[in-house]
Amino acid sequence: MPRKEDVKGKPEAGQEKKVVSKPNPKSENAKEELQSSNEEFNNLIEELANRNRELTRMHDDLNNLFGNIDMAVIVLDSNLKIRLFNPTAEKIFKLIPTDVDRPITDIRLKLTIPDFEGALREVLENFLPMQQEVQDEKGRWYEIRIRPYLTAEKKIDGAVLTLFDIDEVIQSKQTIEKARNFAENVLETMNKPLVVLDADLQVVMANRAFYQMFKVKPAQALKKPIFEVGDRQWDIPEFRQVLKTILSTNKTTDRLIIRSDFPEIGKTILSLNLRQLPSIEGQEILVTAEDITESKQLEEKQYLHRMDLEKKLEDAERLAIVGQTAGMVGHDIRNPLQAIVSATYLAKEDLASVPQSEIKKSLVESMKEIEDQADYISKIVADLQDFSRPLKPSKEETDLRQAIDTLLLSMETEENIQVIAEIPDNMQNVKVDPAYLRRILTNLLINAEQAMPNGGKITVTAYKQKGDFLITVEDTGEGIPEDVKPNLFTPLFTTKSKGQGFGLAVSKRLAKAMGGDLTFESEKGNGSKFTLKLPNC
């Protein structure tokens, strides 16, 4: 049988035995520390896992970037050994994986790089980047760049070598350069001056004809604004405006006429053609110049000549009408004019028997005025008729000395006018029309007297020269103004308040009708000299 105490100590069915233990402080602290350490360890593992993932991503990014860039990249350590390279470098330099850790100077890179090792050392020692254009064995162009390899602490731990394929760029430049050289050579052979301007209107190039024509040297024009070339003779507002328009609208301009005074070549008229040129360097303008000074002056002379001919034709038509009128009315004028002259003569005869008085004196002066005016009217009619009708001189042997002396004695001159005649004796038997000669000399003597309102001297001379007889009438007046000289023998041209402008024109016509001529010399302030030339026949 079980003992009593054993029965008492057993728990009843459905009941658990409770063990009551006493708390241990040390055990509780250790447990908490272990739990905290586990949490920190888990956080550290998670952080390391995140960093590993970031590093893996960065590594993948760098590998993808490194493997997909078109330029070749080689990373070297401080001993110039290859640390790594990308596929492009592998292809260009024919590298293999076992080339890693090999000095790059031991590898034949198939590129012509002058003093390659020296350039690498220069970059490592002086921290100076290097860049230059090189060619491979096939002549393909690359641009090589060497930069220091910097660590996070900004220390140099090798070098980075990059290689860019610039063959297309170089080939394009060479093609453009060849085309430019070809164009420049073509332009140099052209006779017309040419100049090319950039977008800033500075001279890019000019041909030989430009420098020769405008007397400038290349150093005085190239890379300078066109408006400053020479002595700023190109600084013309119209030229500026056209250039500005071409740059903004790409329009062309043909036959722009400019006038300027260029150094050493003087006043010049230019015809310019301007147009914009296609260029990879920006906008460029081609300007061609043509010196049209002579043609323009000829054109202007032709225009003036045409206008002069038109004026002469107009004058001729007017003179023809005047001549017709003179022919018709000349007879009608002369008849009453002769009656006036006759009546005046008879009146003067009647006055001669009248006793002297103030009234008689006044009447004599009036008769004299009537006679003078009648002579003037008769002269005008004669000039008109002589200028308009055909001339038929009646030449006869004449003693020039006697004819001139007789004319001078018949002419009345003012008291302040001195008339001197210097006629040699050997002026006989000269075949002239005496009436024409008298008309010519009368006109010349009247003009000489009118040229000296304050008095002076008239000298009449005659002499032989090369078989011709020459008669000169010279005065000491003020001379003929320059602007009057070209029109001196023009009909209806006169500078006098009283006169019709026929005297000298008729005199020249009469001289030519006798086979001679009438000319003049005059200097301002030194009087005038008219010379009548008569042929010895």
Key terms:
537 residues; Beta-Lactamase; 6-stranded antiparallel sheet; 5-stranded antiparallel sheet; 18 strands; disordered N terminus
What's the count of strands? 18
Structural shape: rod-shaped
Discrete helix count:
13
Largest sheet: 6 strands, antiparallel
* CATH structural class of the largest domain: Alpha Beta
Spell out the CATH superfamily of the largest domain: Histidine kinase-like ATPase, C-terminal domain
What level of helicity do the residues show? 40-55%
Mean pLDDT: 82
CATH architecture of the largest domain: 2-Layer Sandwich
Question: How much is the radius of gyration in Å?
Answer: 59 Å
Distance linking N and C termini: 206 Å
Q: In total, how many domains does the architecture comprise? A: 4
**Beta-strand residue percentage:** 15-25%
What does this structure look like?
- By secondary structure, the chain is an alpha+beta fold.
- It has 4 domains: 64-165, Beta-Lactamase, CATH 3.30.450.20; 188-291, 2-Layer Sandwich (Beta-Lactamase), CATH 3.30.450.20; 302-380; 391-534, Histidine kinase-like ATPase, C-terminal domain (Heat Shock Protein 90), CATH 3.30.565.
- The chain is 46% helix and 22% strand.
- It has 13 helices and 18 strands.
- The chain has helices at 4-9, 25-68, 87-93, 116-126, 167-189, 208-214, 218-221, 237-249, 293-352, 358-388, 400-410, 434-450, 503-513, and strands at 72-76, 82-85, 111-112, 130-136, 141-150, 156-165, 194-198, 203-206, 253-262, 266-277, 284-291, 396-398, 417-422, 430-432, 456-465, 468-475, 517-522, 528-534.
- The strands form 4 sheets. The protein has a 6-stranded antiparallel sheet, with helices on both faces. The chain has a 5-stranded antiparallel sheet with strand order 8-7-11-10-9, with helices on both faces.
- Helix 9 runs antiparallel to helix 10, helix 10 (358-388) crosses helix 13 and helix 12 packs antiparallel against helix 13 (503-513).
- The chain is rod-shaped.
- The model is unreliable at 1-8 (pLDDT under 50).
